[in-house]
Amino acid sequence: MSRWIDVRKNLRSFRFAAEGILALFRFENNAKIHLLAALAVVVAGIWLRLDRVEWALVLTQMGLVLAAEAFNTALEKLADVVSPEHHPMIKAVKDLSAGAVLLVVIVAVVVGILIFGTKLIKMMNWSEWF
């Protein structure tokens, strides 16, 4: 009997995805740094009492940074298998992928400054200065 949704197959897919996430944070130094930064942002967000929309923006940025790092890692590993020796095109692919992560991080930092900076200015009564 054919089922529209194969539950076991979907559960297996989730397990493989979870293994990928665990491997990312277990073996990739940059992912560990991003995860530490994300944890610090969560602590700061709790301390500064972010509202629902601010949390949505901050968590979206964190997810984008972590996902970009995962894509970058996957591309780098694939590139290393395709061409273990130095190749200028593989270098270009790796540089573009790393650059994409940097772009996402820059935007996340700007969003963080807008949200956390505003909260800190209000908290420190520096409003009249800005």
UniProtKB/TrEMBL annotation:
Co-factor note (free text): Mn(2+), Zn(2+), Cd(2+) and Co(2+) support activity to lesser extents.
One Gene Ontology term from the biological process aspect of the record: phospholipid biosynthetic process
Record-level Gene Ontology MF annotations: ATP binding; kinase activity; metal ion binding
InterPro entries in alphabetical order: DAGK (IPR000829), DAGK_sf (IPR036945), UDPK (IPR033717)
Transmembrane segments: 33-50, 96-117
Positions with a binding annotation for ATP: E28, E76, E85, H86, H87, K94, D95
Recorded superkingdom: Bacteria
Gene3D superfamilies given in the database record: 1.10.287.3610
UniProt-listed Pfam families: DAGK_prokar
GO cellular component: plasma membrane
Binding residues annotated for a divalent metal cation, in chain numbering: E28, E76
Membrane disposition: Multi-pass membrane protein
Subcellular localization: Cell membrane
Catalytic-site annotation from UniProt: E69 (proton acceptor)
Co-factor(s): Mg(2+)
Main subcellular location: membrane
UniProt binding sites for substrate: E69
UniProt keyword list: ATP-binding, Cell membrane, Kinase, Lipid biosynthesis, Lipid metabolism, Magnesium, Membrane, Metal-binding, Nucleotide-binding, Phospholipid biosynthesis, Phospholipid metabolism, Transferase, Transmembrane, Transmembrane helix
Family under the similarity heading: Belongs to the bacterial diacylglycerol kinase family.
UniProt xrefs under PANTHER family: DIACYLGLYCEROL KINASE (PTHR34299)
Protein name per UniProt: Diacylglycerol kinase family protein
Organism: Larkinella punicea
Organismal lineage: Bacteria, Pseudomonadati, Bacteroidota, Cytophagia, Cytophagales
